[in-house]
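Whiteboard transcription, Tuesday session. T.W. wrote the structure tokens on the left side:
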């Protein structure tokens, strides 16, 4: 089995755990491409563990949100879970724990940036959860998952009204103020062809409210919308917009993008990647890449949020209240 004992001990230190059977942790890091080149059965890869880890994670996060957020509906809990147990969130957590450098990958996958590929990091994270569960039981797996995903879970409690598509949320807010529909503009494309980074800005009445980055244009747009929503929450924002005052565009990387490297010292930090909420399993599991079924994610409007906006407004009543008041007063004048 690949992975030296020294490297495994280094990862155990990052995870905050010592395995009884290190073989489980080693297998949780073996990608199928490694076995294709070095020999071995597909059953020796992490794929079966990924299947189990996904189920364990769903139970852990569902239970935590159920107790942490007693005042929200079943539909909102589902969206919250999908926000946490999704590709970008799990990949961010894997990066914070430096899982990528411990992966066993085939040469081709390694050369194409597999150690930092979102889909692989997400799968590895789920597999490690399964390895902990098999080695030490549910409570140990729960403790690890809540530590590793602490920033994402805390963010749900802090931004409950943002669980649905932030682009839709931003449009609802600015139109409630009597402003024009937000539109998105590509600023730049950087990085190699196989791993591009898009920078997008969101504009309202031709004023830039936020900049976002992502590995896909849609991810960058969502990140920019998140930043713009932060701008909208500033107390004097409506007056500034009404007066035509310049608005300083903020960069993506606010609530979920502080210092990734400092995670082990400060569990409230996060990666410098934008707060994207879709994975190729679009904040759920994608059949195109893994053959798994799809579950509802935050990029898909729920019936609760679409029913007169009651679900969203009930969880985000503060900013919406003054925006609606401003919108009404501006229309009268």
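and on the right, the sequence the group agreed on:
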């Amino acid at each position: 089995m690949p992975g030296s004992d020294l490297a495994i001990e280094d990862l155990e230190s990052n995870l905050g755990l010592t395995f009884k059977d290190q073989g489980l942790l080693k297998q949780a890091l073996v990608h199928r491409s490694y076995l294709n080149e070095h020999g071995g059965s597909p059953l020796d890869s992490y794929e079966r563990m990924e299947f189990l880890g996904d189920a364990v994670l769903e139970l852990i996060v569902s239970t935590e949100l159920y107790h942490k957020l007693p005042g929200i509906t079943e539909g909102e809990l589902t969206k919250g879970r999908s926000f946490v147990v999704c590709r970008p969130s799990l990949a961010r957590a894997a990066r914070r724990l430096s899982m990528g450098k411990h992966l066993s990958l085939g040469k081709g996958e390694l050369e194409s940036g597999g150690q930092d590929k979102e889909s692989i990091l997400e799968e590895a994270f789920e597999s490690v959860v399964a390895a902990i569960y098999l080695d030490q039981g549910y409570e140990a797996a729960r403790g690890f998952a809540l530590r590793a995903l602490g920033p994402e879970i805390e963010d749900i409690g802090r931004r409950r009204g943002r669980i649905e598509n932030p682009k839709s949320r931003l449009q609802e807010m600015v139109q409630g103020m009597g402003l024009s529909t937000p539109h998105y503009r590509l600023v730049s494309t950087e990085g190699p062809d196989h791993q591009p980074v898009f920078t997008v800005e969101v504009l309202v009445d031709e004023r830039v409210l936020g900049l976002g980055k992502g590995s896909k244009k849609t991810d960058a747009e969502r990140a920019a919308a998140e930043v713009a929503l932060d701008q909208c929450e500033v107390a004097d924002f409506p007056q500034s917009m009404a007066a035509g005052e310049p608005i300083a565009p903020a960069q993506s990387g606010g609530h979920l993008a502080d210092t990734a490297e400092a995670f082990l010292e400060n569990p409230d930090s996060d990666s410098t990647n934008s707060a994207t909420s879709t994975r190729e399993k679009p904040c759920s599991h994608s059949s195109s890449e893994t053959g798994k079924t799809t579950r509802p994610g935050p990029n898909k409007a729920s019936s609760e949020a679409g029913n007169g906006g009651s679900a969203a407004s009930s969880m985000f009543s503060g900013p919406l209240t003054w925006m609606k008041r401003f919108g009404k007063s501006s229309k009268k004048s």
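Someone added at the bottom: The longest strand covers residues 183-190.
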